[in-house]
Amino acid sequence: MQWWRARYAARERQRPRAGGLELSRITRAALEIVDAEGLTALTMRRVAEETGVRHTSLYRHVASRDELLVELVDHVLGEVAPRQTGAGWRADLEQAAHAFRQVLLAHPAVVPLLTVGQLLGPNALRGREFGLGLLIRAGWEPARAVRIYLTVTHFVIGTAVLGTGGAARGAGERTAMTDLFAGLPQYPLVRELAGPLNLPDGDQEFAFGLTALLDGIGDPR
Questions:
Q1: C-beta separation of 109 from 35 below 8 A
Q2: Rounded to an integer, what distance in angstroms lies between the CA atom of residue 195 and that of residue 177?
Q3: pLDDT score, position 126
Q4: I need a surface site. Which of 26, 29, 85, 153 has the fewest CB within 10 A?
Q5: What's the rounded Cα separation, in Å, for the pair 90 and 50?
Q6: Within the chain, where are the H helices?
Q7: Per-residue pLDDT tens over the stretch 72-91
């Protein structure tokens, strides 16, 4: 948190140099590396190679690989494009949740970083501003709006962690698990429901969960 406070202050003071290296160029290069080869491939020297500069030039923008990872997460969050659908707060929130999830699934190597620290960068805060704003404008009390926003956000992140980690299930995994369950007579319900247990894919599970969550939240009174 202190790091972000200092970071925001430094950005206010910093003036871009004409034709100079920008943070956005650094984070784009970092993301290309991570998407293609994973987090272990990301080094300051590798990013310097990709951007065509000396690695010491990167330190004007990020002091270390750890700082680069923090900025990388916020860069990815900047790809989320929530919008007003014109169909009410719930439709807007559903659209934002689906958009958030799709961005995270597009960058699976970055997803574990979302649970390492607080999301406090400019893009993260823009997302908070949008979510809280649409809920408060819809008539939710501010404290309730905060709870709804955080609950939905954490649901999206949690499902993305499951959907990009070792628990992710593709068609092959679902078929194998169905066969496994069907051969376990000691668990009669698991055996009987082997097919339904492994039928939904990640998109279906997410849509069902989000609908159930918002049904439980209800409408502002």
A1: yes
A2: 9
A3: 94
A4: 85
A5: 42
A6: 2-13, 23-37, 44-51, 65-77, 89-106, 122-137, 142-164, 171-182, 188-192, 194-197, 202-217
A7: 999 999 999 988 888 899 99
Report the chain's mean pLDDT, rounded to a whole number: 89
Higher pLDDT, 36 or 200: 36
Q: Which residue matches tokens 């030039």?
A: 57
134 close to 126: Cβ distance less than 8 angstroms: no
| pLDDT band at 14; cut points 50, 70, 90 | low
Q: Give Cα 24 to chain centroid, integer Å.
A: 18
Percent of the chain with pLDDT over 70: 94
Cα-based distances in Å from 162 to 118, 158, 182, 206 = 19, 6, 24, 11
Q: How far apart are CA 28 and CA 79, in angstroms?
A: 11
Q: In the numeric block, which tokens belong to residue 47? A: 């990013």
**Separation between Cα atoms, residue 177 and residue 200, nearest integer Å:** 12
d(Cα 36, Cα 32) in Å, to the nearest integer? 6
Residue 172's pLDDT is 80
Q: How far apart are CA 11 and CA 9, in angstroms?
A: 5
Tokens of 73: 């997460």
CA distance 32 to 35: 5
Q: How far apart are CA 169 and CA 176, in angstroms?
A: 10
Which token pair is 109? 């190597």
Is residue 113 classed as helix, strand or coil in its secondary structure?
Answer: helix
